[in-house]
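Closing statement on the dioxothiomolybdenum(VI) ion sub-project.
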Amino acid sequence: MAIKADKSPAFTTIGRPLDRTDGRLKVTGRAAYTGDIPAEGLLHAVLITSTIARGSVSKIDSSAAEALPGVIAVFSPANPPGIVPKSDKTGKESQLLLQTNKVFYHGQIIGLVVAESLEQAQHAASLVKVNYRRSQAVTKMDTRASALVTPEDAGGGRGSIKSGLAAASSTIKATYTTPTESHNPMEPFATTAVWQGQALTLYDSTQAITNTQKNIAAALGIGPAKVRVISHFVGGGFGCKLSTWAHVGITAMAARKLKRPVKLVMSRSQMFGPVGFRPKTIQTVTLAAKKDGSLTAMRHDTISETSRFVEFIEHCSSVSLNTYLCKNVSTSQRVAPIDIGKPTWMRAPGHAPGSFALECAMDELACALKIDPIALRLRNYADTDQESGLPWSSNALKECYKLGAEKFGWHMRSPKPGSVREDGLLTGMGMATAVHSVWRNPSQAMVRILADGTAVASAGTQEIGTGTYTVMSQIAAEILGLPIDKVDFKLGDSDLPHAPLSGGSTTAGSVGPAVAQAAREALRKLINTAVADPQSPLYGAAAEAVSCRDGALSANGKSESFAAIVARTPEKYIEAKVDHKPGDEEKHFAMSTFGAQFAEVAVDPDLGLIHVRRFVGAYGGGRILNAKTARSQMLGGIAFGIGMALTEQTIMDNNCHRIVNNNLGEYYLPSNADVPHLDVYFVQEDDAHVNDLGVKGIGELGITGVAAAIANAVYNATGKRVRDLPITLDKLI
Ligand code: MOS
């Protein structure tokens, strides 16, 4: 096969449902996660966290802890392991590195115990006595207008809601609420700081090694070049591991001060503390439409909780800006600052809760107008991006509705709520649109062809369980014409070419094109080397006439292996490093991913028990790099959505101002029995604009719309419209 242009449909490695290249390491337990990394003379650290939600630490008595054998140090705001320099621009958040005695929320880090063993550190931490000055805390969202803050640029829209409402024959208005949710990755936060002189090596469970390097360098007052961050495997992050939380800096400071490596692994209950959560939201949606279903006005107003010391906005309302065709749209976002930790991004931030409200409202409108829910959405299909007016780079939403409906058997649905009974259970079907933004980031990458005929590709990206090792190896193998087992992909080290954080579904579409470009450059260098080398059978051939296949170059009926060409170079390798930047395509095209979600539920009318019986999702995500890992992404998204719909909530006791279900026994994640047979389909989408590979990124699309599809199915089954997640049995009986 000749060298392929990236847009060639004739890919042989890209797209295939290959097993994960790191799968064997993982299932045999040989994949070293952060907490598994050994270090000489390692000390163990345990956090002390506040037991009040507002006030200050007045006194810490650590004498009993310090008297224990093996205890090396107890740090607190009175005795911090280091001082954050004024040059650190992270500002308000850096005070959480034991730089202040103020307490902003229950669970805030107020101390660190370091000991020779984990057990000694845990025991010592239990003996530390803390006295507080308490102030009155508020942890319940106060929704009075006077208590709310409107962030800048937090609203948007177009046209006139007033004239849109006047033109409508039907209007629905409803308020939807979603609870605080916690990420709960299987691997807790873990960090190990190892200093050699003035240089730090930090093993950290993070979705963002480059940001961690920058933030930790700033907190320590040293240059980023002095900080190396390593993260080869991450056991789930779902957004909470995008930020550099205070425990990382505190651990690095402690190791510097004690001149020994220090390791910190958070307990499960601490995972509900100083490391973020999805904030509670209250969303009011108004939809107005003509008799035929065409939308004349859409309004989406969101209030979300945030911390008092730093603001975080859960951008739910923006989902209403460009999902549907409508001339008159208004959105707003306000936040309620209270005495809680800082909320953060959680899988499909904004889009997951936002699509719950919008897609339930669409279902309510369909019922009011007596129009089929899919027909209503098709009537309002936006053939251009309604905000920018630009055409979509690609948009397979219509095909997703069609394919999903066919596979699901939507035609069997009875439109009359509460009308279908099977074996004493009420059954129902619901659907929703899935939607997520496409963001593209610059990334570097490197590809090196070695004298043994193999290649190493690398980029400082992260493997957060999505299949990054595998898909990046596929891309390099494809371009180089090598079998995948001849290509190694390295990631998770800040010494590698820099790549963006692994969030916002951006890795495949940002790092992938960089790896492809580096592979093309390396191949070009290999060809140029061969045709200029009198010892090569390809000597004198025109570079354009050279093709590559199975680890060899050929031209004019002659060929030579990569290995032989590279072996004659003085360096014994040929490499290319690139800085890939997205072009100006966004000036001409709007980019988004879409899909259609379908749920069938069975509800016990006496007990209110809800069971998702079947779920079908059909998605358009541009080019799919690996059909198997992509499917797994969507399965994970749907399972997350089932949790969001039916079980997950982080419960705050508003009297003691603490989270009461801070463990996996009482924070109900969906388990196998809650997740039925799931069917995932991808509609082929050829996107010639998003990047050279046509990859849009699918990580977060899978959760969007799922909770709405289930809520709509519950309504169809029972006639009860539950607008408050999770839909627990008490809300149905
Ligand atoms: Mo995701 S919330 O961008 O990890």
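The pocket of dioxothiomolybdenum(VI) ion is lined by residues 207, 237-239, 242, 345-347, 349, 503-504 (CB under 6 Å). With this model delivered, the sub-project is considered complete and its resources will be redirected to Aim 3.
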